[in-house]
Specification:
The protein has about 260 residues and is mostly helical. Among the domains are: about 55 residues; about 110 residues, no CATH class. Helices cover about 40% and strands about 0% of the residues. It is globular, with a radius of gyration of 27 Å. The chain starts with 8 loop residues before the first helix and ends in a 25-residue tail after the last helix. It comes from Lentinula detonsa.
């Protein structure tokens, strides 16, 4: 009908059909949720997400195209981190000193990549991004130190961006003998949770350290094969009280009947 908002059911159907095969059905649903939120913000009616026809189209997309298989990335645990940092050259390769410091910091702090780097298309903002002033340093021992400068910088001296960080980490992983495609920037967050669980931290403590608000942290806790075998073996030990009668306790007080 030529109008843009509120979005009509017909336009939503065309849009959903256009997205089919390009993105996951669950992502299409997320887009519709955001669109409904936008309508709510400007006090416009929007019921297309509840439309049986729209839901049927989404189900049809899911059946026709299927869902993409998950490609989970490997965690960067302490052992992996120890190996990869030996292949960084902070003394000879420009930028590697900051890469090494960033790698250790993100692991120790359960940081996500976006929490200590800038996005590739964004400029450094001292009010949002981490600055050198976040650390308690003695300016006399740090020539050129400026509290408003980026905490981590690349070889060019500008704020460390996410793609440069991940690229250099993958190169170091490859040199250390790992498959670099099996890791991502999120592998540090994943690995910190896995290592904390292996070290005996409780799930609540891991959730607290990783700043998870939901139970999503459970997806990042991995139990290695040795631990699984140990847990399984506990089920096969002989019963420690073999001499005890397995007669139900309630029958002990009853008189014996021949």
């Amino acid at each position: 009908d030529g109008s843009i908002l509120p979005a009509s059911q017909n336009s939503i159907l065309h849009w959903v059909a256009h997205l089919g095969g390009r993105i996951e059905p669950k992502t299409i649903k997320a887009y519709l949720t955001h669109l409904r939120s936008m309508h709510t913000d400007i006090d416009l009616p929007f019921t297309a997400t509840e439309s049986p026809l729209v839901q049927r189209v989404i189900r049809g997309i899911k059946r026709y195209h299927g869902e993409r298989g998950r490609n989970p990335k490997q965690p960067i645990t302490l052992s992996v981190l120890t190996k990869l940092i030996t292949h960084l050259r902070p003394a000879t390769v420009p930028g590697d000193c900051d890469i090494l410091a960033a790698a250790c910091t993100t692991y120790a702090g359960f940081l996500r990549c976006g929490e200590f780097t800038v996005h590739n298309s964004e400029k450094f903002n001292p009010s949002i991004n981490l600055t050198a002033g976040c650390l308690d340093l003695n300016p006399r021992k740090q020539p050129g130190w400026n509290p408003s400068h980026p905490l981590f910088r690349n070889a060019a001296g500008t704020s460390l961006d996410c793609s440069s960080f991940i690229k250099r980490i993958r190169q170091a992983l490859q040199s250390a003998g790992f498959n670099q495609s099996a890791f991502s920037g999120h592998s540090f967050h994943h690995g910190a949770a896995t290592s904390a669980f292996a070290a005996g931290f409780t799930e609540y403590e891991i959730q607290l350290l990783g700043r998870w608000r939901s139970n999503a942290y459970k997806l990042y806790i991995e139990i290695d094969e040795a631990r699984r075998l140990h847990i399984s073996s506990q089920l096969h030990w002989a019963h420690p009280h073999e001499s005890l009668s397995f007669e139900p306790p309630a029958l002990h007080s009853l008189p014996f009947m021949a």
